[in-house]
Amino acid sequence: MKKGMVNRELSIEELYDLAELFKAFADSTRIRILYDLFNEEKNVTEITCDLEMNQSAISHQLKQLKNYKLVKSRRVGQAIYYSLDDEHVKTIIEMGVEHIDE
User: Fold this and answer.
1) Which end of the chain has the lower number of beta carbons within 10 A, N or C?
2) Mapped to the 3 state alphabet, what secondary structure does the chain carry?
């Protein structure tokens, strides 16, 4: 969505997709993972250590975040590295933090 596009009428499908996107941010574990990936890509083991959670829970949430197109992955040998999907994800997080700081 380009800047200034918010003033246009959204279709039912677009509104549904927007609601689904915001659902992704409704889980504190997913937010913690996104924030952990904010500045650099990491593998599951690193995220697990950073968040002090079990690997199964992290892997489950990473799958959800990939489904929401908020994270992407790349394989290096046996390891899979995760990062934020694009700059839009960073912007959403930054705007959310700015909003709660007001």
Assistant:
1) C
2) CCCCHHHCCCCHHHHHHHHHHHHHCCCHHHHHHHHHCCCCCEEHHHHHHHHCCCHHHHHHHHHHHHHCCCEEEEEECCEEEEEECCHHHHHHHHHHHHHHHC
